[in-house]
Structures are given as structure tokens and as C-alpha cells.
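Try this one yourself first.
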């Protein structure tokens, strides 16, 4: 009982820290920029105090500006390009779609490249030179396939813009000015939509160049900007936010858990799963996808609308595009400081504002389509684009604020896939059909439906952003609390689940479950059918990911670690039912379990011999497939596999279900032997009789919550928990 007493002391220490968490949470929110006040410091002063200066935001802004040259010019010059190359406009729309898909998918390997090492600046510079060459090369294509090649390569290299620009910006500047920095960056995007058509107008209307000369000129400008950006440097992950939240709890030094950080550091897809569990992220990604249906097809069909409905040539279309995009720059400049103040007060209000602006923009766009007066049409388009241009920096600021800094490139990649890959593809497919039947005006008007849907989704996201921000801050604080406990010499439990919530789709199964197991301890997890016992084991073993709470193993956070990686750490589960490979023989099943022992065949053979010694029946049927054996014999194989690999923690689900008493007795003896080797065991059982004959400590679950945590014998006195079905024969199973 001494070990469990140590755990109680540890739990008391953690609870004492949690009692002061409210104050830490407020400080943590302030560290990520949510201070509750509305006073945003002047941008110039804040830049000077940060010691960063203008260079990162200007460099990345210029890169974003010129990165759009090829795409914008292909859209504006679409009628001329299709006529010159002898291709239908549907083929051009298809090439734009493929480029968009390549761009969005290429964000995944880019995010993977930077997840462990902060080298985002180098990737930005290298890829900038790559897309500059592709923009230049567009002017020399002579076939449809040549255009396809340069656009696809441009899209692949431009993936860095989507995946790393904004995360790099957020890590380069402190929270009090980030919304304005993001607005500046998105203003550069709008400026690119001004610069590209102006350059087109200069080259075509004044200099008399063809569309080919336009791309050559733009390529040269891109190369010059890439040269300007070569002094970009990566400041590291979370310099101004995550690390400052950590400093709220501790000083500079930090102790480590028993498990090496490299063993539990999340991989690419583990991080992707992690961020997709955040409600705000899911909602904003859905809104991004719906916005993609609006934005990507809109810019493709706008040039054809202006040509068909208003007879505008390339020069006048470029002026129109520049003028309306300039309104976006003005809107971003006007809203930047206001958005900063809203974020400091309440990030939820900022997201709600984005939904409102989207509604205004969509309504204005619909009216502009039917306006018979040219000047009014231009004004309405300008207002619509101004409203929608403010939305993306708001959404991305809210989205990035609820995830740790090192996960932002992955989230940026997912946002790009949602916006351009999912939304853009669906939008172009939708508009292609509408265009054939109702023309370009009808195609643009049909975008009102996804726009309204996105606005509704954003209003729902506004309800969760504050909770998710607090949760992210709380996770960082908890990590530092654990490190502080280790540093103070406090012994941590082998397994600690804290405040676990879990749901299957919309049905919540676990509610605020906390559960601990000490080194070498055997614990019973009891409860009624449907109480959540097996679900809790799934969360511990990684087969299910919680919507809230943490799972710590030997002090390390393994909440979102893949199941196979948990096995390599010494955590193994015997699932309920048959935990064997039915088509394999007994020996083959045992050898399959020995993979964690590496290439040590002697150790595997010795382990198999020990299993056969413990279970003579298995030795007799060593070459028989598991499918031909009884349920009890299959459980013997499952226990034998665990005995061979000697895990540090073994989770056993329903060991005795449907088995004869004699067989159960043999299995229990093997469980005792496994525990005697030093393996901690969690035994999930409905039979109190069996469970209490093995353990001293028990948990009892009912309706997804822990109702009892204490000495196993004390559980017998809880008539409110142990109904007659559980009490039957329970006292007979206890040692006298």
C-alpha cells in the first residue's frame, strides 16, 4: 500500500497546483495576447520594443504579393491565352483546378519538413526562386501541356506560402500586434491582386506587349523580391507565446519525464489528428472549405463575366481588378487595429465579426450581378471584396491561437487543403455546370449559397474559440506543472489519466475521468455494461483520442501518440474477445508478439518455452490455428504474448468473459506471474468476485464517470454501486 499512498500524495500535489490554475490561466491567456482590455499598443512602438522590426513582415508580404502573379495573370488574361493556344476556357479552368490541387497537397510535405526543426525561412527562400522561374517560363509556353507544366510546378513550389508563411510570422512577432501583422500580410495579398493587373495594363495597353511579355516581366520582378527576402531567419517555435506560457509556471530550467521526449514527440499525422480534435479548428476548416467554393471559382469566372456582360478587354479588366482589390487593402488597414482590440477582449467576438462581414459581402455581391449601371456594379464589387478580404486574417488568427506553435504549419496545410483543395474543387465543379446553363453571371450568383453557409458556421465557431484557447493554455501549463513536480523529486504514477472526455461522433461516453496506476501495481476497473470501461482502455492504448484531458505514461504526455508507438514504450492491451490472429498457429501467434524483442530469436524461443510451461495445453496444440481453439485457449495465447514481451503496463479487457471457472483459474495464475515480473496491470472485469481476488485497489465506473476510487474491500460496502448482480459470490472470492 505504500506505493498507492505515494500516488495519493502526488495527486494531492497536482490538485494543489490545479487550485491555483485560474490565476495561471489568466496569465497564460495574456501571454498569447488575450488580455481582456481593448488597448492595443501602437504598431511602430511595439515593433521597436520587440526588437524584430519590419523586415520579416515586409519580406513575407512581398513574397505573397509576387507569388500571386502567375495565377492572377492567367485569370485576367484567360481569354487571350485560350485564344493563342487554341484551347477552350474549360481547359483553362481545369488547369487552374489541377494547380490548386497540387498546391494544396504539396503543403503536407512542406509542413512535415518543418515539424521537428525550425527551417521555415530557408524553405520560403528556396521555393520563392522556384516559383519565380515558373512565372518567367509561363511567357514561353506554346502548347496546352506546356502551360499545364509551368502552372503545376508553380503550384508545388508555392505550397510553402500556405504552409509556413503565417506560422513564421506569428513566431516572429509578439501577440499584442499579431492581428495587425496578419492584416498587413493579407493586405500584401490584396496588393498583389492590384499589382498584377496594373502590370498587365502597363504591359498590354501602354507598352503594347502580348500576354507573353507580361509573364516575362512578372518573372523578373519575382526574382528581385526573392533576392530581397534572402535575409529571412526562423526565430524558432513559440518564442513569443508558448514559451511565455511555460514561463508563467516555471523558470528557465525544466526537468524531464522518465520517457525521452524523442520517444513521444508527435509525428505528422498524429499532429494532424490532434488539431482536428479541436472544435474551433474543425468549424473554421469547414468554413474555409465553404469559402473555397466562393473564392477559387470566383476569380476564375470573374474575367469571363466582365468580358461577356460588360465587353471589357484585358486592359479594362486589369484596371477593374486593381481598383476592387485596392479596396481590400484599405479595408484591411482600417480593420486591423479594431480587430486587434477585439481579439484582446474576446476572440469569439472577432470570429463572429467575420461571419457578419461574410454575410454583408455575399449580399453585396449578389446585388452587383444584377446591377445595370456600370459604376454601381464596380462600387458593389469593391465593397464585397473589401468585406471578404478581412475574413481570412481573422479566421487564421483565431485558428492558430488555439494550437501550440509547432503545430501551426500542419494546421496551415490543412486550412489550405480545405480552402483550395476541397472547397475550390467543389466550387469549380459546381460552377462549371451552372456556367454552361446560366452563363458566368449565374455561376457567380450561385456562390451566395456556400457564402451564407460559411457565415453560419463561423457564428458557431465563435462559441468555442475561447474554451479551446483556454484548453491549449491549460495543456501547456499542465506540462510545466508535471515538469515542476519531477524537478522537486515527486514520484509520478506510471499511468495518469486526468479529466478525460471521449465521444463516439456526437455521443459522449466518458465524462471527466481521472485514473492512475502505480509502477508494478494491479488495479481493477469495474462497472456496469456500457459504463465506459473498455472505452477508457481504448483511450489509454491510443485506439481512441479524447476530446479533452490528458494521458501521461511515466510522466510523458502520450494523449495523441499512435497505438504502435505506445507498444514500443511498454504499454500493451489484451482486447476483449479473441486477441489473437485466427489464421495463425499458436507458435506463429507467439512469434508475431515477439516483434518488439527485435531480432533476438533466442529471447523469443525462450519466451515461447516459458509460455508452454505455464500453459501445457498450448504446448500440446502448438501447431493448431487459433481459429480452431476455444475462447479460453485463445485467452491463454493472448496472455502468453504479454508474458513474452514483458510490458511495463498491461491492460486486460474482460479476461473471464464466457469462460469456465477452471480455465479462469489458470488465466488468473498467469496474470499473477506477469504482475510478479514487475508489470503493472489494469484488469477490466464485470465480475467483482474475480477482480477483488487479485487486486487491492479498485475503480468503479457508471455512466461514463468514476464513482469509486479506493481500497477494493471498501467497495463491498457500497451498496449504491454494487447491485445484486455484482454482489453475488463477491465475499467468497476474497481471501480470509
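Now uncover the answer:
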Amino acid at each position: 500500500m505504500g506505493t498507492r499512498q505515494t500516488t495519493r500524495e502526488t495527486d494531492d500535489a497536482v490538485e494543489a497546483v490545479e487550485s491555483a490554475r485560474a490565476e495561471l490561466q489568466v496569465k497564460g491567456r495574456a501571454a498569447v495576447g488575450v488580455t481582456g482590455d481593448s488597448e492595443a499598443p501602437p504598431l511602430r512602438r511595439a515593433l521597436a520594443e520587440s526588437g524584430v522590426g519590419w523586415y520579416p513582415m515586409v519580406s513575407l508580404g512581398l513574397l505573397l504579393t509576387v507569388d500571386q502573379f502567375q495565377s492572377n495573370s492567367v485569370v485576367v488574361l484567360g481569354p487571350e491565352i485560350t485564344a493563342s493556344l487554341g484551347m477552350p476556357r474549360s481547359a483553362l479552368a481545369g488547369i487552374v483546378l489541377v494547380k490548386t490541387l497540387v498546391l494544396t497537397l504539396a503543403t503536407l510535405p512542406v509542413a512535415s519538413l518543418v515539424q521537428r526543426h525550425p527551417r521555415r525561412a530557408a524553405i520560403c527562400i528556396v521555393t520563392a526562386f522556384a516559383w519565380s522561374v515558373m512565372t518567367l517560363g509561363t511567357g514561353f509556353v506554346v502548347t496546352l501541356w506546356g502551360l499545364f507544366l509551368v502552372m503545376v510546378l508553380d503550384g508545388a513550389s508555392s505550397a510553402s506560402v500556405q504552409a509556413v508563411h503565417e506560422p513564421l510570422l506569428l513566431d516572429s512577432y509578439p501577440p499584442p500586434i499579431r492581428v495587425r501583422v496578419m492584416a498587413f500580410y493579407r493586405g500584401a495579398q490584396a496588393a498583389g491582386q492590384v499589382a498584377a493587373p496594373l502590370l498587365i495594363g502597363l504591359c498590354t495597353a501602354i507598352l503594347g506587349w502580348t500576354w507573353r511579355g507580361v509573364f516575362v516581366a512578372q518573372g523578373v520582378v519575382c526574382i528581385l523580391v526573392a533576392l530581397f527576402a534572402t535575409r529571412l531567419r526562423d526565430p524558432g517555435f513559440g518564442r513569443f507565446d508558448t514559451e511565455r506560457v511555460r514561463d508563467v509556471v516555471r523558470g528557465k530550467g525544466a526537468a524531464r519525464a522518465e520517457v525521452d521526449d524523442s520517444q513521444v514527440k508527435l509525428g505528422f499525422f498524429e499532429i494532424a489528428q490532434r488539431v482536428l480534435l479541436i472544435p474551433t479548428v474543425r468549424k473554421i476548416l469547414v468554413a474555409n472549405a465553404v469559402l473555397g467554393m466562393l473564392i477559387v471559382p470566383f476569380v476564375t469566372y470573374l474575367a469571363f463575366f466582365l468580358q461577356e456582360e460588360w465587353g471589357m478587354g484585358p486592359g479594362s479588366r486589369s484596371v477593374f481588378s486593381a481598383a476592387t482589390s485596392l479596396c481590400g487593402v484599405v479595408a484591411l488597414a482600417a480593420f486591423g487595429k479594431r480587430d486587434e482590440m477585439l481579439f484582446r477582449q474576446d476572440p469569439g467576438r472577432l470570429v463572429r465579426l467575420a461571419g457578419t462581414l461574410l454575410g454583408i459581402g455575399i449580399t453585396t455581391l449578389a446585388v452587383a450581378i444584377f446591377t445595370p449601371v456600370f459604376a454601381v456594379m464596380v462600387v458593389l464589387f469593391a465593397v464585397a471584396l473589401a468585406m471578404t478580404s478581412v475574413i481570412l486574417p481573422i479566421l487564421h488568427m483565431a485558428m492558430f491561437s488555439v494550437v501550440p506553435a509547432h503545430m501551426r504549419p500542419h494546421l496551415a496545410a490543412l486550412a489550405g487543403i480545405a480552402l483550395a483543395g476541397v472547397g475550390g474543387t467543389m466550387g469549380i465543379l459546381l460552377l462549371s455546370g451552372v456556367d454552361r446553363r446560366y452563363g458566368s453571371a449565374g455561376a457567380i450568383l450561385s456562390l451566395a449559397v456556400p457564402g451564407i453557409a460559411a457565415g453560419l458556421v463561423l457564428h458557431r465557431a465563435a462559441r468555442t474559440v475561447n474554451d479551446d484557447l483556454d484548453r491549449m493554455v491549460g495543456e501547456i501549463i499542465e506540462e510545466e506543472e508535471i515538469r515542476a513536480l519531477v524537478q522537486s523529486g515527486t514520484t509520478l504514477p506510471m499511468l495518469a489519466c486526468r479529466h478525460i472526455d471521449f465521444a463516439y461522433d456526437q455521443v459522449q461516453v466518458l465524462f471527466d475521468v481521472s485514473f492512475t496506476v502505480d509502477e508494478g501495481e494491479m488495479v481493477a476497473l469495474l462497472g456496469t455494461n456500457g459504463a465506459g470501461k473498455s472505452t477508457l482502455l481504448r483511450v489509454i492504448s491510443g485506439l481512441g483520442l479524447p476530446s479533452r484531458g490528458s494521458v501521461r505514461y511515466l510522466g510523458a504526455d502520450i494523449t495523441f501518440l499512435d497505438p504502435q508507438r505506445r507498444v514500443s514504450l511498454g504499454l500493451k492491451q489484451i482486447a476483449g474477445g479473441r486477441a489473437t490472429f485466427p489464421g495463425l498457429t499458436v507458435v506463429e501467434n507467439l512469434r508475431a508478439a515477439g516483434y518488439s524483442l527485435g531480432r533476438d530469436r533466442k529471447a523469443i524461443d525462450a519466451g515461447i518455452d516459458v509460455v508452454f510451461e505455464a500453459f501445457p495445453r498450448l504446448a500440446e496444440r502448438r501447431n493448431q490455428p487459433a481459429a480452431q481453439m476455444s475462447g479460453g485457449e485463445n485467452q491463454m495465447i493472448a496472455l502468453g504474448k504479454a508474458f513474452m514481451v514483458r510490458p511495463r503496463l498491461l491492460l486486460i479487457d474482460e479476461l473471464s468473459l464466457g469462460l469456465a471457472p477452471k480455465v479462469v483459474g489458470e488465466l488468473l495464475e498467469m496474470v499473477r506471474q506477469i504482475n510478479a515480473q514487475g508489470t503493472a496491470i489494469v484488469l477490466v472485469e464485470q465480475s467483482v468476485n474475480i477482480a477483488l481476488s487479485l487486486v487491492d485497489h479498485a475503480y468503479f465506473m457508471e455512466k461514463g464517470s468514476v464513482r469509486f476510487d479506493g481500497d477494493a474491500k471498501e467497495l463491498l460496502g457500497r451498496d449504491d454501486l454494487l447491485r445484486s448482480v455484482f454482489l453475488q459470490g463477491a465475499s467468497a472470492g476474497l481471501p480470509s
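Discussion: The mean pLDDT is 82. The longest strand covers residues 507-517.
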